[in-house]
Design a protein that fits this description.
globular; Rossmann fold; 8 strands; alpha/beta
Length: 268
Amino acid sequence: MAEGRSSIVITVFSTTSGIGKTFVATNLAAGLAKDGNAVCLIDLDLQYGDVANYLNLQGVPTIADIPPSMPVNKVQDYIGEYRHGNVSFSVLPAPYQVEKSYTLDERRIISIINHIDKFNFIIVDTKAEFNDMNMAVMDISTIINFLCVADFVPAIKNLKNGYEAILRFGYDVNKVRPVLNRSDSQTLIDPGDVETVLGKRFYHEISNDFKGASNSIRSGCPLVLSDSNSKVKRDLYELVGLYTNRKKVSEQATHNGIISFFKKLWSR
């Protein structure tokens, strides 16, 4: 963490493409904002990022549109916004044109992330590969949300290799949180077997709801902000709660309330 930076950086990463990184990242950002946090969502899948498409944003300045001469501590005033009802969060999409991705330098982007200090949380969506940009952002991340699936053998091989590589790179095992997406998909592979392969239990599991996820993306509204009562919505919001200790805070508040109640009884 950069000296003086107060933001918690959660990077959503995987070594397998097409397993829901952007879906999880957008819902993490929306759920954290719903809880009252100042949130910025950054899309670092620089060539084919879909954050802007998932949120149905048009014309929002992208990370490639930031003038090179702009001081990094002024960038946060330039970042666009997503709003749904009374919930809003900042968004810095990937470039709309592929060729603009080649103009970006990871040192400049990491400096920007380290200097935007008005956010409680910064959520970073990434491309499914080990590249200089991803490694640089994982270096400064508070949490690496390592997204997994139990769909097919090649994906599991990639996940195992990727997870072991992350640990070999020296990241603290407690910093890397394996999260199983589409946990109840109808496959021949048991999630417990994937845990055995990884050598670590899943931090959290998100159920499968292809129709609900598709409707969410089509409407541009993250599932956690929708009127849906689906299990996947609850799973996503529970993941948000794990990263904010919402459940622990709630349990402590309940505990304190009970203690206060009995103290009042005893004082009568």
